[in-house]
User: What shape does this take?
Amino acid sequence: MRTTDTSDDRRPAEPLPVVRLPEFTRADLDELSGNADDPFGIAELPLEWRSKDEHFGIRRDGRLVAHAGLVTVPVSVGGVRTDAVGLGGVIVAPDLRGRGLARAVVTAAVEHARGMGPRFGLLFCLPDRVPLYERLGWRVLEREVLVEQPGGPAVMPLRCMWTPLREGAHWPPGPVRLLSLPM
Ligand SMILES: CC(C)(COP(=O)(O)OP(=O)(O)OC[C@H]1O[C@@H](n2cnc3c(N)ncnc32)[C@H](O)[C@@H]1OP(=O)(O)O)[C@@H](O)C(=O)NCCC(=O)NCCS
Assistant: This one.
């Protein structure tokens, strides 16, 4: 018989499969985050974001408990235009954090991204999330990054991180400008 999950259940999470989701709606985010006002902690930043095209999720007893999204974004690096796979919308249900669900859903998304074509994955995050993504193989991009906003290019106030999607891919030198809203 299955044990009913409770919010104070601190057992290690059983391995749960990552599945492709057809979409990730505001209602999904509200359910996943427990109707948090500011689920990603970035509401105060004056930034417009873009939606993601591909969605990965983990369900536990039918409930969506983790999500990561991907979208191909154009980027200029050192004056050369290329594409990157943007990772965003990474979130785990508050009562199930610290059990490896972000690792599982981000790892599955990055595995998928390896087949999408671009050589690099790219993400933006608050400084206190950097160690988490470093654990997952991402590296800080130690330079200013411009992103598109409705009023024109703006300096991204969040940390930018990248990960190679192909063997031996190294982030090229030179100014970095995302030619799209950030993800
Ligand atoms: C950030 C968030 C997604 C992490 O989810 P999680 O399920 O608790 O993360 P995991 O348990 O999978 O942790 C992944 C790894 O990062 C490590 N880690 C997590 N937080 C860390 C921290 N603050 N510092 C260092 N390492 C950290 C874990 O130890 C784990 O490493 P390991 O697998 O090698 O042991 C979750 O806290 C969340 O949903 N926060 C709100 C939304 C948000 O901020 N999303 C990120 C937007 S960029």
Notes: The longest strand covers residues 63-77. Residues 39-41, 90-92, 97-103, 125, 128-129, 131-132, 135 surround coenzyme A (CB under 6 Å). Residues 101-113 form the longest helix (13 residues).
